[in-house]
Amino acid sequence: MNTPADQFGGRASLTRRISDDIRRRILAKEWAPGEKIHSESELSTNYKVSRVTVRTALKTLEYQGLVDIRHGSGTYVNNFGRSIPTGLNELRSMSETISELGYEPGMEYKVATIRPATKTEIDKLRLDNADPVLYLERAVLADGKAVAFSYDTINISSLPEEVVEEMKQGSVFASLDTINSRPIRALAEVDAVISKEIGWGDERPANDLFLLLQQVHYAGDGEPLMYSKTYFMEGRFQFLILRTR
Amino acid sequence: MNTPADQFGGRASLTRRISDDIRRRILAKEWAPGEKIHSESELSTNYKVSRVTVRTALKTLEYQGLVDIRHGSGTYVNNFGRSIPTGLNELRSMSETISELGYEPGMEYKVATIRPATKTEIDKLRLDNADPVLYLERAVLADGKAVAFSYDTINISSLPEEVVEEMKQGSVFASLDTINSRPIRALAEVDAVISKEIGWGDERPANDLFLLLQQVHYAGDGEPLMYSKTYFMEGRFQFLILRTR
DNA sequence: TAGTCAATAGTTGTCCTACAACTAGTCTTG
DNA sequence: CAAGACTAGTTGTAGGACAACTATTGACTA
Q1: Which of B184, B191, B238 is the closest to A189 by Cβ?
Q2: Distance between CA B2 and CA B65 in Å, rounded?
Q3: Residue A5 has pLDDT above 60, yes or no
Q4: CA–C1' distance B100–C2 (Å)?
Q5: Per-residue pLDDT tens for B195-244?
Q6: Any bridge partners for residue A209, and if so which?
Q7: CA distance B220 to A25
Q8: Contact B106, B142 (CB under 8 A)
Q9: A73 touches strand D (CB under 7 A)
Q10: Which CATH number is A4-81's, of 3.40.190.10, 3.40.50.10700, 1.10.1740.10, 1.10.10.10?
Q11: What tens digit of pLDDT does each residue of B148-162 get?
């Protein structure tokens, strides 16, 4: 075969691959902030895809806040600096985010058990009865230093046993990847919390202050996969949100 | 004239108008969560626009998390309930958000002065020197009750004087609307804060706990319009973020 | 000279038609 | 009854065309 897509590979949609590649080029500073990037026709001939595909890809980047498309003029790189690509709008695993920020990611497991689901978990994960779930308590590390404490509940009702075993030690996202059911969407709620019950070890903040990110991850078919409460220690992490009209 | 767009009016792009209308129909429960909506061809003949326009509009709704587009199958309404439309991803004024949640919005002005910009403000608003700015301190009310305290700095260097005067009392967004320069993008940072310096009156929280939303609003041409720090009182407001891949 | 306006080339927005790729159900066949 | 082929319907991509808009250039005017 010699389809135009072959220069990239993978089985994601053509639009997705083009979008990812242009994103990469922008982050690699191929164009300076505020600068006009190549026109849609030019990109489409270079990538050997139709203009429709390029347009859809650029629309994605516009929605992510990376570029600004102006009718009759061109597509311009926004100058939000390095902020956007590490924002909360894009769903990434903690490890991915940490390494994108230039730190060495790590996890410290405190609890990893299979137990019946609680009422809240049955509700959030849309379980029918007291199905067993995988419950994890972990410290999230950046360069060996704890930045957050995470309390996660994973819906294992449709997961093979070996994958569940793997999750007890490694990255949850990575394990889900192996069976091709990585979450594609998450709904997160943010709260400020003061509590002496949260966290452990001598890296806990003295004032008991945390930023709580409470979220439910969903699979491609809309099924809830994981319910997690992550308590971030103030000042050791930056949360950015891009808001658009 | 009798162009296809006439059934809606306004001068927003065709795609934008179609997208808004389908969004309205979904929120009006025309289709139940999980249900498949009309096909792209059907929508395009009904709206009397091309399938390309409908596709672009649906893509927008997919980014917003309202629908799920499945290759070869159809477009399905996501079942996130009423959460998404009030989320942080869409840029709305405080008043808009509060009334969407079913409360009566209000503002209580404490300070409204024009003064030279501080160092931080010069940086955030990209001002050249110590230009004068409009500084506001306000309590945000829902049903007459304070839910947040807001400290806002507005870049008035390119605003006519009467608009600035109007802002001292009414809604900032509404005033900007009159001269057609409403912000279209904002970059927000979220923090948890404990401070005795924030807020006033007897509705302040006893534990001095706030969720800080620190954001810069940008106009369509990329110019920073407003830098604001809004301190929300924990529990009186819900912050939702949709994260997608 | 300075300012206004028309012309123009370039770019994004929308349209049309066609076909490829995929999904989910129906039907056939052993 | 189960497995596989078939099929109608839907989204993804292609290619070409024109409309709408932007920014610049250059001519004309006061």
Answers
A1: B238
A2: 34
A3: no
A4: 53
A5: 999 999 989 999 999 999 999 998 876 778 899 999 999 888 888 898 98
A6: A194
A7: 24
A8: yes
A9: yes
A10: 1.10.10.10
A11: 999 999 988 777 777
User: Per CATH, the architecture of A85-233 is what?
Assistant: 3-Layer(aba) Sandwich (3.40)
In chain B, residues 22-51 whose CB comes closer than 8 Å to chain A: 34
Please report, for residues A92, A115, A179, A224, the alpha-carbon distance to residue A160 in angstroms, rounded to integers and kept in the order given.
Answer: 23, 16, 9, 16
Question: Which B residues between 36 and 55 have a beta carbon under 7 A from any strand D atom?
Answer: 39-42, 51-52, 55
Pinpoint the residues of chain B covered by CATH 3.40.1410.10.
Answer: 85-233
pTM as predicted: 0.85
User: What CA–CA distance (Å, rounded) separates A195 from A205?
Assistant: 10
**A188 touches B: beta carbon within 8 Å:** yes
Answer for the pair B11, B53: CB distance below 8 angstroms, yes or no.
no
Q: Which of A65, A182, A241 sits opposite B190 (nearest CB)?
A: A241
Tell me how close the Cα of A89 comes to any Cα of chain B, in angstroms: 5
pLDDT tens for each residue of A151-206: 999 988 777 777 778 888 777 887 777 776 778 889 999 999 999 999 999 899 99
Asked if A191 and B244 come within 8 Å (Cβ–Cβ), the reply is no
Q: What CATH architecture is B4-80?
A: Orthogonal Bundle (1.10)
Residues of B in contact with A209 (CB under 8 A): 192, 194, 209
- Residue identified by tokens 């990847």 is A177
